[in-house]
Amino acid sequence: MEELQRRIDQMIIHLGGYWRPLSGLARLLEEVGEVGGALYANDKSALCEELMDVFVISTCLANQYAITLEDQAAQQGETAQDRTYYRLVREAGEVGRILNAYEGDKKLKATATPGSLQRHIESVQQATLDLATMNGFDLYAHIIPLIEDKSSRDFGRFDHTPDPITEESVRCYTTYVPGRYWGGVEAKPFEAVSRYREREGHLARFLKIAEVEGLDGFVIRQPESPLQSNDSVASDLQLPTSFVVDLERHGPDTFLIVRKQR
Fold first, then answer.
1. pLDDT over 70 for what percent of the chain?
2. Which of 48, 69, 106, 242 is 20–30 Å from 56 (CA)?
3. What are the residue ranges spanned by the domains of the chain?
4. Alpha-carbon torsion 159, 163, 166, 168, what sign?
5. How far apart are CA 182 and CA 208, in angstroms?
6. Which residues pair with 260 in a beta bridge?
7. What is the H or E stretch that residue 249 is in?
8. Taking the CB of residue 233, how many other CB atoms lie within 10 A of it?
C-alpha cells in the first residue's frame, strides 16, 4: 500500500496538485453516491470506475495528512451487497465528520481520538474492495493501469492549490528525516518571521490538529539569508506554549521545525 500511495502522490503532482481537503471530501462523497447509482443500475463497468475513484480519492486524503495506510484485503464474511454499500456510506460519513472538525466550522473536540481518520479511511477502502470482489473484479489490478494512464497524460489538469504535504520545504526535509510532517510556504530572504506567519496559511491548521492527528512537525525551510526575528521565533510565529521551535541542519539545508513539546 505504501508504494501505491507513493504512485498516487506522483500522479496527483503530475496532474497539478491536491484539492483542498474539503473539496477532496466533497469529491469522495460524490463518488460514493455514484457507486450507489451504479449498484442501482447494475452497471458493472460504471461500478468499477466509481470504486476506483473512491479508492484513489480516499488515498489522496490520507496522503494529505501524511498517513501511511495499511494494506486492505477483501473480506468474505459479508455477502449482502446493500449492507456493504451502507458500510461504505457510514465510513465515508465518519471521514466527513473528522475533516469538518479539522478544516471546517465544526469544533474539534478535546476528546477527539488519535488515529480516527486513518481507521475510517481504511474502512472506506475495505468496503470498496469488498464491493469490487462481490462483483468479480480485482480493484488493485484496475487501479495500476489507471495511475499509469493519468501519469502519462493530463499534465497540469488541476489548478495548483498550495498544500502542506507538497511544499518544497517538507519534500526536502523528509529526504533527511522520514516522518509525518507538513511544510510551510517558501520563506523570502531576510523576511521577518511575523510577516512570514501572516502569509503562511498552513501553520494554523497544523497547530489545530497536530496532536490529535499525530503529525510529527511543521517544516519551515530557511532561505540562504534567514528569517529575521524581533523577539523569539516561537513568539513571532504566535505559537501556543505547548509547541516549540527547533533549528536543524541537514546537509546544506537549514530548517525550523515546529513541534509539540515532548
1. 94
2. 106
3. 2-152, 168-260
4. positive
5. 13
6. 243
7. strand 243-250
8. 21
Band (78; pLDDT cuts 50, 70, 90)? low
**Which single residue is written with the C-alpha cell 481537503?**
21
Tell me the C-alpha distance between 211 and 200, whole Å: 20
Q: Are 121 and 62 contacting, i.e. CB atoms less than 8 angstroms apart?
A: yes
Report d(CA 53, CA 124) in Å as an integer.
12
Q: What was the pLDDT predicted at 260?
A: 94
Confidence check: pLDDT of 156 > 70: no
240: number of Cβ within 10 Å: 9
Answer whether residue 2 shows pLDDT above 90.
Answer: no
- Edge-first strand listing for the sheet containing 253-260: 181-183, 217-221, 253-260, 243-250
Helix (H, G, I), strand (E, B) or coil at 40: helix
**E strands in 123-208:** 181-183
From the list 35, 38, 77, 37, the residue with the least C-alpha distance to 55 is 35
254 vs 131: CA distance, rounded Å: 48
